Amino acid sequence: MPLHPEAEVTLEANPGTVESGRFSGYRAAGVNRLSLGIQSFDPASLHDLGRIHDAEQARSAVAEAQAAGFDNFNLDLMYGLPRQTVESALRDVDTALALRPTHLSLYQLTIEPNTLFHANPPELPDEDEIAALHDAVSGRADDAGYRRYEVSAYALPGRECRHNLNYWQFGDYLGVGAGAHGKITASGGIFRYWKLRHPDAYMRHAGTATATAGERPLSPEEMAFEFMLNALRLERGTSGTLFTQRTGLPLSAIEAPLRRAEDLGLIRHSGDVLCPTERGRCFLNDLIALFLPAPASDRGRDVPSADPTS
Predict the structure, then answer these.
(1) Which of 18, 157, 171, 293 is deepest in the core (most CB within 10 A)?
(2) What pLDDT, in 10s, does the model give residues 234-275?
(3) How far from the centroid of its chain's Cα atoms is residue 269's Cα?
(4) How far is CA 181 from CA 211, 228, 269, in A?
(5) DSSP percent split of the chain into helix, strand, coil, nearest 5
(6) Taking a C-beta distance cutoff of 8 angstroms, is the pair 251, 224 a contact?
């Protein structure tokens, strides 16, 4: 089936794996947007992160992409890195802005299980330093005309990432390839499925039903939580209408946590609009946690939620 002529086709790439001429091939194949995992232009930070590229390779990758005809691309940067200061974080952002991306992803470093940092935690900036770093990089992006439209995403007008907006609005998507996950809305409900993880096994079964390793339906409680988990990341929030369209549930399904969030000043519910307040953005994890499904033994009774201000 041919793609819509205005379809956005994004490819993620790392500067250290770029080969000369490859971007031209991607562009000829129909890719029209790139996302480059730069993370930092600082040599010490790149070493700490275990990245295989250096700052010059990052600049060269962007130049090659532009020469191949890519005028729509994202650069990933991290803040909250070991020994990072406001000044060094701003140097990273300024270097990225000089490359004229249409989109910036500014992520706070988080320590994930089964990683080198998890096994040997580095000394990271404290909470006050993280807040200062966030305000600095966000402010710099805003001053340059990049609008923050999601927790970590900034874009020039009209250049918001379409596929991410689809995820954040609880849209459906296909899982294609080894280990890929998908989400489909069907007459029987909403289903998540996943493909065989090992590439060899996937290729042997590709194109057949046996390439799908598993599938499960989402419960109404899971649908409500997953919708809010994603939609509340958006600066503009969401709507009760979209909640019902995407989950098939009435807004009353989340009446209790929504009322709790309003009482705590974390969300604004005006007409059909559901939007995090400035306070809610600062305590986003606490806001989202209010919509977590209650344990099976507690369902049917109103269980008090933790107050993030206490």
Answers:
(1) 18
(2) 999 999 999 999 999 999 999 999 999 999 999 999 999 999
(3) 24
(4) 12, 20, 33
(5) 40, 20, 40
(6) no
Distance (Å, whole) CA 112 – CA 137: 23
Q: How far is residue 184's CA from residue 102's CA, in Å, rounded to a whole number?
A: 30
Q: Residue 84 corresponds to which tokens in the numbers above?
A: 């990072």
| Nearest alpha carbon to residue 247 among 231, 230, 226, 223 | 223
Place of tokens 């995820």: 167
User: Is the distance from CB of 54 to CB of 46 less than 8 angstroms?
Assistant: yes
Name all domains of the chain by residue range, CATH numbers in brackets.
Answer: 10-161 (3.30.750.200), 169-218 (no CATH), 224-298 (1.10.10)
Q: Enter the tokens of residue 26.
A: 């991607």
Reported as a pLDDT band with limits 50, 70 and 90, residue 1 is low
What distance in Å separates the CA atoms of residue 132 and residue 135, rounded to the nearest whole number? 5
pLDDT at residue 298 greater than cutoff 90: no
Single out the residue of 39, 36, 44, 164 nearest to residue 109, CA to CA: 39
Give dist(CA 130, CA 85) in Å, integer.
Answer: 9
Taking the mean position of all CA atoms in its chain, how far away is CA 98? Answer: 24
Dist CA 185 CA 191 (whole Å): 6
Q: What separation in angstroms does the CA of 275 have from each of 142, 228, 240, 254, 260?
A: 20, 10, 11, 14, 14
State pTM to two decimals. Answer: 0.88
SS (H, E, C) 226-258: HHHHHHCCECCCEEHHHHHHHHCCCHHHHHHHH
- Does residue 140 contact residue 165 with C-beta atoms inside 8 Å? no
Instruction: Say how far apart CA 62 and CA 73 lie, in whole Å.
Output: 9
